[in-house]
Specification:
Elements: H1 18-29, E1 36-38, H2 46-49, H3 58-62, H4 67-75, H5 97-106, H6 115-127, H7 139-150, H8 157-163, E2 166-170, E3 173-174, H9 180-188, E4 194-195, E5 198-199, H10 201-204, H11 211-222, H12 229-245, E6 250-255, H13 265-276, H14 282-303, E7 306-311, E8 313-314, H15 319-325, E9 333-334, H16 344-350, E10 358-360, H17 367-376, E11 382-384, H18 394-408, H19 426-446, H20 452-470
Parallel strand pairs: 1-2, 2-4, 3-5, 6-7, 7-10, 10-11
Antiparallel strand pairs: 8-9
Helix pairs in contact: 1-19, 11-12, 14-16, 17-18, 18-19, 19-20
């Protein structure tokens, strides 16, 4: 029996109620083809530095770099080595892309009903034109189809950027990164709008692996010998200005907790000197991180860079996997997070400052209505980022709309960002957000809370207008 054609339903993700479904379809039609604004993500800028760059083979594109994919497979006992994930020590891993693809395909059913499954289907059907459902029997034929397309000029990274209708794509870059890829993009004359984002985590976390080496690299790039806290701050400020000169409009900060604390000059210098001697304690780390969040907010009031704070992930939960494969291998797990008291020192100092824009994210949904929405609903500096990471999903977005919008209001949110390493999934992720936004707005229209003109205006803002404004991309 022939496998039925794989298709994407025009009304997918809309409410089954006929009235709301019809309204949602009408609202979505008005935003479906708006440009994609991607103000925060982890796509490698080197993909765009050379007009001849390619994605490699289907396995290198869709499996090996995507921790959403291989964490699900690993959860069923499949070794990361069998999926071609590189080891830190250069040890043996599977290097036959077709064998990895076959293993992926025969386990494709694991992604049914998950966000990854939705994104993968959209990529395969809409981007690569695949019409057979993925399984063990169709695996190699689908591999051949995708490989053939990846060899075509229309599927080079720059060409897909334009085909996807991307208006701007922001990367995430270490504080000491010389931004060579971004410089190459500029020199090339290509008109794609690829912008860096300043991420100083490795030079702020005093116990981060290789902190001393990262500090040396920071100083070298800034042209500053870092021997004191003052020279450290000078180097950070210089690097932020360099990033801004390269088009950056934002910074990005990860933290286990959004703790903030103002230290005296003497306190912070003492801690910094202990760190330089490799003598920092866990308490030093907590206090220094908390102090540096205030410092980064202060810098943002001066240079205008939007500050993003991503707390609540216990990174590298399995130490054996971290030792063997490194970070970002699917073992980052959400933790309970408290914002109201932790952020109070920062918000007391800068929460009403006209130059600060602080976008908050959470992996603890219990804080949506209890803390985050009330905070964003009163502090002018605050905006709420979209459902993040584990909650970038149908149900996650629905919960976000239900728990945040009434108290914070739509215009105290930052729209959508895809936060992805998987470039080919960007249209899928934005499409899910747009469909869920349309469906939420349709429910408000059906209950006579909004009229259709208001819903259309709000839908356009949710699709791209809010992100442009929140990240100061239109300045």
């Amino acid at each position: 029996m022939q496998t039925p054609d794989w298709q994407l339903d025009d009304n997918r993700f809309f409410d089954p109620d006929h009235t709301q479904r019809s309204l949602a379809a009408e609202i979505y039609a008005g935003i479906a083809h708006l440009p994609i604004v991607s103000p925060h993500g982890h796509v490698d800028p080197r993909l765009f530095a050379d007009e001849n760059a390619s994605f490699g083979n289907p396995t290198e594109l869709l499996i090996i770099p995507d921790h959403y994919v291989f964490r699900m497979l690993h959860s069923q006992g499949i070794p990361l080595e069998a999926l071609g994930v590189p080891r830190r020590d250069g040890g043996a891993v599977e290097n036959d892309p077709r064998k990895i693809w076959q293993l992926f395909a025969q386990n494709f059913y694991l992604f049914r009903g998950t966000p990854s499954g939705i994104w993968l289907q959209h990529e395969l059907v809409s981007v690569f034109g695949i019409r057979q459902k993925m399984d063990a029997r169709s695996a190699q034929a689908i591999y051949d189809e995708i490989a053939a397309r990846l060899a075509q000029p229309e599927f080079k990274p720059r060409a897909l950027y334009e085909h996807f209708g991307i208006e701007v794509l922001c990367t995430t870059d270490a504080a000491s990164d010389p931004l060579l890829a971004h410089q190459a993009i500029r020199r090339s004359g290509w008109q794609g709008n690829i912008r860096p984002t300043f991420r100083p985590d490795t030079v702020v976390d005093l116990l981060a692996p290789g902190w001393a080496e990262h500090i040396q690299a920071l100083g070298a790039q800034a042209g500053v010998e870092i021997v004191s806290y003052r020279s450290y701050i000078q180097a950070l400020e210089q690097r932020r200005m360099f990033f801004k000169s390269m088009g950056a409009t934002a910074t990005d900060h990860a933290a286990l907790a959004p703790y903030t604390e103002a230290l005296s000059p003497g306190q912070v210098e003492t801690i910094f000197q202990r760190a330089l001697k490799n003598q920092a304690s866990p308490q030093d780390v907590r206090q220094f991180n908390g102090h540096m969040q205030l410092e980064m907010a202060r810098m943002s009031t001066e240079d205008g860079l939007v500050m993003q704070l991503h707390p609540g992930s216990l990174r590298n939960h399995n130490l054996e996997v971290f030792a063997r494969f490194g970070p970002d291998k699917g073992f980052d797990i959400p933790t309970a997070t408290e914002f109201t008291r932790n952020l109070q020192p920062l918000l007391q100092a800068y929460g009403r400052h006209p130059r600060l824009a602080l976008i908050l994210f959470t992996l603890d949904e219990t804080t949506y209505s209890r803390e985050l929405a009330p905070l964003a609903g009163v502090y002018p500096a605050l905006k709420l980022g979209p459902p993040w990471w584990f909650f970038d999903s149908l149900n996650g977005m629905h919960r976000y709309f239900e728990q945040v919008m009434e108290t914070a209001g739509l215009y105290n949110t930052a729209g959508f960002n895809d936060d992805t390493r998987a470039f080919a999934s960007i249209p899928a992720r934005h499409d899910v957000w747009r469909r869920l936004s349309a469906n939420w707005l349709a429910g408000l229209v059906a209950r006579h809370i909004l009229d259709m003109a208001e819903a259309h205006a709000m839908a356009a803002d949710m699709a791209c207008g809010l992100a442009r404004g929140a990240y100061r991309l239109d300045q």
